[in-house]
Specification:
234 residues, 4-stranded antiparallel beta sheet, 8 strands, 4-stranded parallel beta sheet, alpha/beta, globular
Length: 234
């Protein structure tokens, strides 16, 4: 690639970043199904905002919808230790990262932190700030009922949580059955998701996540994080 073309591409990129920042989002909120979105934003844009589902894992969209229908149910029946770093809510069956493993203090730590995050999640949702919710849709769970379930997800946010001034972005893998955008949600694709056991591997960002991050951009970009996550591989 010639020098002139490189300079032109740099100028175009700067222009796009400037435009996107003006129309960007005050809050970009991951709904799962796992940590890939939150981790990729942290690594790519140094954008970190603690969220209820940032470091969570939901087996399917139904569990997520049920959790959103009444966020007070999260942790209502306590948490059970699953594997290192994960605790499962016995009411909603959504799994959350904890700071401690199978100790007497582990469940208490998860409960205390999630109580704070639940209140924050609802407060932000009901604010006038511009919000983007991102949900990764598992390829194995896409079928003829998916559009209806995505509408149910939107309704849970709007009607149950009380969210306003928001958009719902649904991200799928390219080899998945196509899902058309609707008046309730926008769909985009990446080449493939990082394996569930390797979501904190930054090499997967070039699968197409970077294009999504340039299109749906946070208004504010943070500084390179100095915090070290115990699950951070790179």
């Amino acid at each position: 690639m010639g020098l002139k073309k490189i300079i032109r591409n740099i100028k175009i990129s700067i222009q796009k970043l400037s435009q996107n920042r003006k129309r960007g989002f005050d809050h970009i909120i991951s709904l799962g199904y796992n940590c890939e979105v939150a981790y990729s934003f942290l690594k790519y844009f140094y954008f970190e905002e603690s969220g209820l589902f940032n470091w969570a894992y939901s087996k399917n969209i139904d569990d997520l919808i049920n959790a959103l229908k009444d966020t007070d149910n999260i942790g209502k029946n306590g948490f059970v230790f699953v594997v290192s770093g994960l605790w499962e809510c016995q009411k909603t069956f959504v799994q959350f990262h904890g700071k401690e493993d199978n100790t007497k203090n582990g469940a208490a730590e998860v409960t205390s932190r999630l109580n704070y995050l639940k209140n924050k999640f609802v407060k932000i949702a009901q604010s006038d700030d511009k919000k983007l919710y991102i949900y990764k849709m598992k390829t194995s769970q896409i079928d003829q009922k998916t559009p209806k379930k995505l509408e149910m997800l939107w309704n849970a946010l709007a009607k149950n949580v009380g969210a306003k001034n928001f958009q719902l972005l649904v991200v799928c893998e390219q080899n998945a059955k196509p899902i058309k955008s609707s008046d309730k949600y926008i769909t985009r694709t990446v080449k493939f998701f990082a394996p569930d056991t390797d979501v904190t591997n930054g090499s997967y960002m070039r699968n197409g996540w970077d294009d999504i991050f340039y299109e749906f951009y946070p208004k504010k970009i943070g500084k390179k994080p100095t915090k070290k996550y115990k699950f951070d591989k790179k």
